[in-house]
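This follows on from our talk about sequence and fold. Please put the record directly below this note.
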Amino acid sequence: MQQEIPPLVRELAAVAHVAAHQPAPPAPATSAPPLPAHPPAVPPPAAPCRACRGSAAAAVLADRDDGTVVRHGGAVAKAHAPGTDIAAHRARLAVAAHPRLAGILLPPLPVTAPDVHGRPVTAWPYGTPVDPADPDAAPWEDAAALLARLHSVPPAELPAPLPPMRGPAKAARAVARMGAAGPHPAAAPVRAAWRRLPGWARGEGPPPGPERLCHGDLHLGQLIRHPAATGPWLLIDVDDLGMGDPAWDLARPAAWYAAGLLPPLVWSRFLGAYRAAGGPAVPPEGDPWPRLDVPARALTVQTAALAIAKSTVERRDLDEVELSVVDACARIATLPPELAREVSS
């Protein structure tokens, strides 16, 4: 018996089908188009698509609470999280489509149905993602250079107003999710490390220093080659993009390095490439940790909190990598108060 395709996937497949067969990409826009009150329904393809050399079946690339992504040929359609702030969503799309971000962010494609089941929908060119099975080929230097270029874009040249970068807010949600999942013996050091962070890193206010345009959720899954296989690397997923502390975008690899999960040579290559490209998040030379410490600690807490929440729901033990991040939180929690104040200032 053929499995029934969920309505959301079916409608996203239709959006991706239309986006994949546009005659030509439009000129880059400087502002996001208004959402129609009643977007037109687009029927899904009912037969094999000759142009895509494939079948009418949707290829589901991701299906999570924060987004569902479906591919058809050279395009993907994404249903963003329920409850997405529409004004901020439009602003982020406008930035991604802006000519100033060409060669840095993947630009969106027009969509015929920008709202499906009450969730905003976007379409994007399909690109080749980083191969998780080949860590030696991971494009750390390319990621660093793209971040440096992103952080260097003058906000005054972009459509206003720009929303805040959502990194600290996501960290706060991760800690709340850990608590909602139920009691766990590893949760105490994570909460203790969280309490030692300054308020801005917990999403309670703006950062203390100058704000820059930030990605907000940098990891290797946020890069693709476009055109697929042969094109340059580009940053994707603007759901968390906005104004904030650019050090946050370096925090995940910094946290992995501090926890022993990222080899020192890889961290050195990443940091060196960022500095070589003129990235403003850290000084051009010398010790970067006074700038990276707080965001790296926050990302360590976020990672540990999500690991505990997932393991609690799945009724399983923490794996070796997850335990190493929890252990890092335990070390953070024992940081002397005077040192915590010094690195947070």
Remarks:
- The chain has two domains: 7-126, 135-344.
- The CA atoms of residues 40 and 219 lie 35 Å apart.
- The radius of gyration is 21 Å.
